[in-house]
Amino acid sequence: MNKSEKQKAKENERRQRILNTAFRIFVEKKIEAVSMGEIAEAVGIGRATLFRCYSNKTELVIAVCAAQWKAYLDELDQNRPISSVQDIPAVGRFIFTLDSYIEMYLNHKELLQYNDNFNHYVTHEGVDPEQLEKLHASVYSADTRLHMMYEKAKEDHTLRTDIPEDEFMRVTVHTMMAACTYYAGGFIWGAEDNRDYMPELIRLKEMIINYATASV
Question: What is the pLDDT of residues 39-66, one digit of tens each?
Answer without folding.
Answer: 999 999 999 999 999 999 999 999 999 9
